[in-house]
Amino acid sequence: MMLRNALASAWYALAVSSIAGQAFAQTAPPQSSQQPGDLDTIVVTGVRASVKSALDIKKNSDQLVDSIVSEDIGKLPDNNVIEALQHVTGIQISRNAAEANQLLIRGLPDIATLLNGREIFTSTGRFVALQDIPAELLSRVDVQKSARADDIEGGIAGLIDVRLHRPFDFDGFQGAATAREVHSTLSNHNDPVISGLVSDRWQTSMGEVGLLADVSYIRDHYKEEILDNYISTQSIGPVPGSTGANGTAFVPLTEGAQSILGDRERTAATLSAQWAPNADTEVYLEGFYTRFRNPNYNDFFVGLPWICANPATATVFPGTNEVKTVTGGCYDLTSDQSFLAKTDTYQAATGLKWTGDKVKFTTEINFTTSRFSQDGYILDTQYNPPPDGYTADFNYNGTGTPYMNVTGINLLDPSQYHVRQLYDQWTVQKGNEIDWRGDLDFKLSDAAWLRSIDTGLRFVDRFAQNRADNAGGLDCLGPPPAAQAGSVACSTQPALSALQGTAYHATYGTQFNGQFGIRNWMDADPNWLANNIGYLRELFNTSATGARPPQDPTQSFDDREISYAGYVKGNFGFDVGSKPLSGNLGLRLIETRASMLGNNSVTVGGVTMITPIQTDKSTLDWLPSLNARLQLDDGLFLRFAASRTVTHPTFQQLDPALTLSASTATLLGSGTSGNSNLDAVKSVNADLSLEYYFGRNNALTGAAFYRRIDGYIQSVNQALTINGIQYQVLSPVNAAAGKIEGFEGGYTQFLDFLPSWLQGIGVQANGTYVNGDFQNISKWSYNLVGIYERGPTSMRVAYNWRSGFNAGGTPGGAQPEEPGTIFAKSQPWLDLSASYRIIDSLTVTVDATNLLNSYYQDYFGNETVFPRDTRRFDRQYSLGIRYRLK
Question: In 445-488, where do the E strands start and end?
């Protein structure tokens, strides 16, 4: 309280004294909203101009920054923001559900996300799902790797600022539209990508006014195929050659095939208005909306090789007690898991910029609200193969991919599949935030070593709420409450063909083209499942009326977080010998008060008691920062940066509730728990870089970095026995202090020295080495990009590679000999983008992704003995047009 009062009083006094003597109104209208040194306004066309703009941003910035800039309105180099960022030095990405969905900066995922310089997030998260912001709307994206005092706190890894177009970015009227049709190979579907922008600015009697509207619509029918093993826990024996006691050998709990299909729709729109009543003043109003819909379903073939396995047919990996091949199986399962996911995020902002002779004042207030909901319906079905009708090879031909085949039964006969398990899930997450900030910049003297002083305040009121049911399942052949009284489903286990309507479907396409055995199978139809969930609830006797499950108090939390921040930053410039040195030195203080309300569930003597839990916490973070740039020669710069950064735990991680799910035929007894005692993650950072810019748009850069991280949050499994039932409970903890260190280098050059008939060729290459104590870090990653642009023709071929990495701990319950860590193998990726300008206003585009048909694979510690997942993704090809009218 004392901190925020002191900050507010001091800042208010500075603001009043600075503005009081300045003339507010002048009559000359501005030619542009861009101020000297302001890089917000960038209009580029073509790959070469895009590269040049990105290098200019990096060169002129007073901190370590890398950027990607749109080639033209509606044209970022890749299909979405994360895919475009994968080619930035120091960036690594991961893919899931057939798209890039996680981004790391120098090995760390804790990233603050901004939209036009202000914080934005998705529902209860700390950051926005970047893939939900269509690339077609973007002007540029900045990746800030070093911190300044005026940067919003929240990302120990760095900060990503997504910049949209504004009307004053253009000289006058601007109209543009893009249309593409995208073909995805695995889903075998064609989908549209459409965007349009209209912008204009006018001189009026009240000053200059600008209006802009930009919209985008993307649809994506996608497919991802997975083959997997799930931890060795089941023993069989005696098995010839096994090293286990009395010939005992271990078999994976399940061996499966998974086909993920979905229909993603992303719609986004931005409206922007700017008003400049005079040359010194600008008022703006902006609105942004993004809508995400993703009905998707997973078809599972759940092999259970340990049930009735025939030990006499089994072989083991030499010198181990791990089964390599086996036949048998009394029954297996198939499963359809249908999910209906929806996200809506809104942000509205208004602000004022005023520039006097010695003072610049800016203020902005914005409101963000985001809601995510998902309903999940899972129906597992059982079929019974004949004796020795199921065969399994857990490392087929040494590929690290399991092979499965079933003989003696028609896997496409719905009468062979009987209902077995039901999971009925729903969740609703909401988040909103009111955010105000005010900033004052004081210009001193260009002749003094201290050129200017910047100061500012920020107030944030953030609320997060979660509501959900218990995600556990009902297994008709499992422990209570299985086969509960009145459950027709459990007492008769009807076949899919006996359920009302057409309750079944055959899986789409062929799993890995049948290369690893199983190709197609039958399970519940996802549309039938969603439309008949009330009927299934009555059939399983979970609801007499077909109503959805009640809210589980342990899945509910209401968190409010109020923070006050203030900063002061000095911008300096002086000569070291004959070399100019410039930069900034500052301090940011943040006081955060959080109140977290949740519920805990405790069962004693068969009686379950729900106990409310409230946790109040107050923290004070101080974040010093230094950024310095020494110009050694024309185009040659030496940079140094040092800072302290902080990331607070997510609201989900702070939820203190314990949720348990008893074991079923396919899952071990498990649980999840938050940790209200989690501390913020803090990092002390140092960066040193050398950058050389030569020619018109060429650069050679290198940087070394160091991060000492205290309290990094990782999830760990703990074995708990509750009421005689064993559970593996996954909960977040603050890890011991660790470090990340490494180096990165980049090279960009257009080969203008070549003969004229070869000119237009450009090369970009970068590589990163990261050595760290944490999960998901690839030690090595690199990008190779070939560019050709000459006349109306433009082309870019981009190759990306990251080495294998620690993907996290294994699920609980594995037998002792199995390694406790999952490792992912290296993965290459190749994309192509090309365009041809027919006339000045019309361009034809061709794009292709995943040209190498790359697989993702991981394993439990030993890739030969313990293979885990093999996944393959859609290739995509697109043909489009881009139209621009000035």
Answer: 450-468, 473-475
Residue 513, φ and ψ in degrees, nearest 5: 55, 25
Greater confidence (804 vs 663) lies with 804
**What is the distance between the alpha carbons of residues 343 and 345, in angstroms, rounded to a whole number?**
7
Structure tokens at 433: 């935030």
* pLDDT band of 147, cuts 50, 70, 90: very high
The residues near 753 (Cβ < 8 Å, ≥ 6 apart) are none
How far is residue 564 from each of residues 3, 594, 620, 621, measured CA to CA in Å? 8, 12, 10, 11
Distance CA 158, CA 685 (A): 11
Distance CA 875, CA 223 (A): 10
User: Is the backbone peptide bond immediately before 819 cis, with ω within 30 degrees of 0?
Assistant: no
Q: What is the pTM of this model?
A: 0.89
- Across the range 569-597, mean pLDDT stands at 95
Instruction: Assess contact for 799 and 785: CB atoms under 8 A.
Output: yes
Ranges of H-type helices in 581-707: 651-654
* Length of the chain counted residue by residue: 886
How far apart CA 107 and CA 519 sit, in angstroms, is 37
Task: Give the mean pLDDT of the chain.
Answer: 88
pLDDT tier, 16 (very low <50, low <70, confident <90, very high otherwise):
very low
Plot region of 698 (φ>0 → left; ψ -120 to 50 → alpha; else → beta):
beta
How far apart are alpha carbons 660 and 672 in whole angstroms?
A: 7
What is the distance of C-alpha 436 from the center of its chain?
Answer: 26
Cα 358 to chain centroid, rounded: 42
Query: Using CA atoms, how far apart are residues 13 and 513, in angstroms rounded to an integer?
Result: 71
> What average pLDDT does the segment 707-720 reach?
81
Residue 866's nearest CA partner among 5, 228, 147 is 228
pLDDT of residue 599: 82
The runs of H, that is alpha helices, within 284-382 are none
pLDDT tens digits, one per residue of 335-346 = 999 999 999 999
Give me the pLDDT at residue 95, please: 87
Distances, alpha carbon 426 to alpha carbons 132, 419, 489, 548, 774, in Å:
22, 21, 22, 8, 32
pLDDT, tens digit (0-9, with 9 covering 90-100), for 168-178: 999 999 999 99
CA distance 20 to 10: 16
Which value, in Å, is the radius of gyration of the alpha carbons in the chain?
Answer: 29
What's the CA gap between 224 and 230, in Å, rounded?
A: 18
42-95 pLDDT tens trace: 333 478 888 999 999 999 999 999 999 988 776 766 767 888 898 999 999 988
